[in-house]
Structures are given as structure tokens and as C-alpha cells.
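Page 37, continued from 36.
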């Protein structure tokens, strides 16, 4: 009977994986992509109102009086694009930051090209924050984060295979402490590979390594905690929460503004999306706004640690390992 239950559990995870990835990626549609319109109050306001009224509400535009202020927001990834309408009626300019997400930048460009063609106006596009030469379509941060998180899960799974479920406070604390040097080495290794070895992303070595260590530790701590609470089923829970749901909503191939509502809502609360956002902001946008995603990652570390110690302290069992 236990074998049947185990096989059915695997089947559920497999079908959930298929549903989540296809559900998130099969039909990307832009939703409320932030765009700043630059110009005097009457002109910029009218243009902004027209763009906000586009069918399906793909854009969420607002007016700014100066190009400098709008460009500053773009360089910090606080907006996806800046639109500079020409008072002469031709030669409009769209400024984008493709490093914030290639799919999102392409979607914004497509929307404006269609709008300009309908109005018989010309559009020039300039990318103010492009990808680094080795970072094809900006996916390096996504795959780096996925690799780090998988490493944390595998460490916890290895502890479970070798020693079984953590049954005492002492054994649980040992696993959590053992994850710390592993996380530091993983963060360092990932930063070396993405930078000096492969040349995908240059600069910010220490910061990238530090974020990696936090991500690995958050994955390991949560996985150990769920193992303590649920036993073998804890691995399935980890896969569903952070692989089945976390990866599609992380903003890798498609950014949050292009995902269906469910994945758009959960992405920021999971460490996958928090990790991708933090790495991108560090490497391309001057580390602006990384406090929030870092807090999300740290909350997962604390939650996993508290869960692990609480379960083993409240329900201790004989330590047979």
C-alpha cells in the first residue's frame, strides 16, 4: 500500500509540474507594464491616458515632467520603459532596459510599434541597460538561482537518505549547521562560474556570492524543516512549492508582467523570484530595491530553521542514527 501511495504522489508532482510550466508560459500576455511618458503636463497626460486605455490594459503609464527623472527610474528598474513623444508628430523615442527582462522589453516595443503604426508616427528604440555580452537574453541569473536552490534541496535530501528523518533537536541542529559552510561554498562557486569562468556576468562578485549563500541556506533549511514535519513527503512538498510553482513564477524566461495572475501573485513571495530579482538588480541596476527580495529570502531561512527545531523539540524521538 505504501508503494502505491508513493507512486501516486510522484504522479501528482509530475502532473503539477506540467500544468504549472505550461500554464505559466503557453500564452504570455502583458499586464500593466510600467511606462513613464515624458512631456509637459497636458501632452504627457493625454498620451498616458490613451496608452492606459489600450485593449487588455497591457500598460500602466504615468507622466513625468523631465527625461532625466524618467531615465533615472529606468536605470533602477522602477519602470520598464520611457516614452518620449515628439511634439512635431514624428520621431517618437522609446527607451527600454532589456536587462530587466528580454520578453518584457520586446512586449513593450511591440505594443508601441503597433500604436505608432496606427497613428502613422515613427518610433525609434534605444536600449539604455542592455545585457552584458555573455548574458544571452538575461537568463544567466535565473539559471544561477535555480542551480543554487537545487543544491540546497539536494543537500537536505542527502541527509534524509543517509540518516533518515531528523528525530531529535540535536540531529536537526547538526543538519542546519552543516548547511552553512555548504551554502558559503555554493555561493562562492556559483559566483566564480558565472563570472570568471564563463564570463556571463561581470562584476559584483562578493555580492553575488553572498546572495547565493543565502539562497542555498534557505533551500536547505526549508527542506530539512519539511522533512522533520512530513518525513519523505517533505521532499514532495519542496518540489511542488519551489520547483513546480517557484521556477515558472521567478521571472526567468517571462517576467511577472507577462504571466497569468496566479504566477504573477506568488512570484514575489517565493525565494526563486526573490533570488532572480536580487541578482538582476545587483548586476544591472545598481542594487536598487534589493532590500525587499533579500528579506523574503531571509524569511525562508528563519521559517525553515524555526520549523525544524520546533518539530524536533516538541515531538522528539529516539535518535537511531
Amino acid at each position: 500500500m505504501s508503494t502505491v501511495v508513493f507512486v501516486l504522489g510522484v504522479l501528482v508532482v509530475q502532473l503539477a509540474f506540467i500544468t504549472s510550466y505550461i500554464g505559466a508560459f503557453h500564452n504570455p500576455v502583458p499586464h500593466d507594464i510600467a511606462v513613464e511618458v515624458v512631456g509637459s503636463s497636458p501632452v504627457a497626460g493625454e498620451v498616458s491616458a490613451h496608452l492606459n486605455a489600450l485593449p487588455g490594459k497591457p500598460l500602466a503609464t504615468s507622466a513625468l515632467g523631465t527625461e532625466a527623472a524618467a531615465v533615472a527610474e529606468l536605470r533602477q528598474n522602477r519602470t520598464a520603459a520611457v516614452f518620449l513623444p515628439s511634439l512635431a508628430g514624428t520621431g517618437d523615442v522609446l527607451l527600454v532596459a532589456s536587462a530587466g527582462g528580454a520578453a518584457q522589453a520586446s512586449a513593450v516595443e511591440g505594443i508601441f510599434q503597433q500604436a505608432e503604426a496606427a497613428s502613422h508616427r515613427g518610433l525609434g528604440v534605444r536600449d539604455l541597460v542592455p545585457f552584458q555580452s555573455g548574458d544571452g537574453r538575461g537568463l544567466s541569473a535565473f539559471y544561477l538561482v535555480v542551480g543554487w536552490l537545487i543544491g540546497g534541496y539536494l543537500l537536505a535530501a542527502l541527509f534524509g537518505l543517509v540518516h533518515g528523518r531528523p528525530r531529535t533537536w540535536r540531529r536537526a541542529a547538526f543538519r542546519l549547521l552543516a548547511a552553512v559552510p555548504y551554502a558559503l561554498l555554493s555561493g562562492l562557486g556559483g559566483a566564480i562560474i558565472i563570472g570568471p569562468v564563463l564570463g556571463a556576468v561581470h562584476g559584483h562578485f562578493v555580492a553575488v556570492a553572498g546572495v547565493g549563500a543565502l539562497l542555498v541556506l534557505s533551500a536547505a533549511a526549508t527542506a530539512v524543516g519539511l522533512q522533520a514535519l512530513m518525513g519523505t513527503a517533505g521532499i514532495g512538498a519542496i518540489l511542488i512549492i519551489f520547483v513546480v510553482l517557484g521556477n515558472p513564477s521567478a521571472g526567468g524566461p517571462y517576467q511577472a508582467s507577462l504571466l497569468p495572475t496566479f504566477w504573477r501573485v506568488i512570484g514575489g513571495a517565493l525565494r526563486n523570484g526573490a533570488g532572480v530579482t536580487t541578482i538582476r538588480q545587483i548586476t544591472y541596476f545598481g542594487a536598487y530595491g534589493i532590500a525587499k527580495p533579500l528579506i523574503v529570502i531571509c524569511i525562508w531561512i528563519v521559517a525553515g530553521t524555526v520549523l525544524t527545531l520546533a518539530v524536533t523539540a516538541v515531538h522528539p524521538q529516539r535518535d537511531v542514527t
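Residues 169-197 form the longest helix (29 residues). Flag for discussion at group meeting. The chain has eleven helices and five strands.
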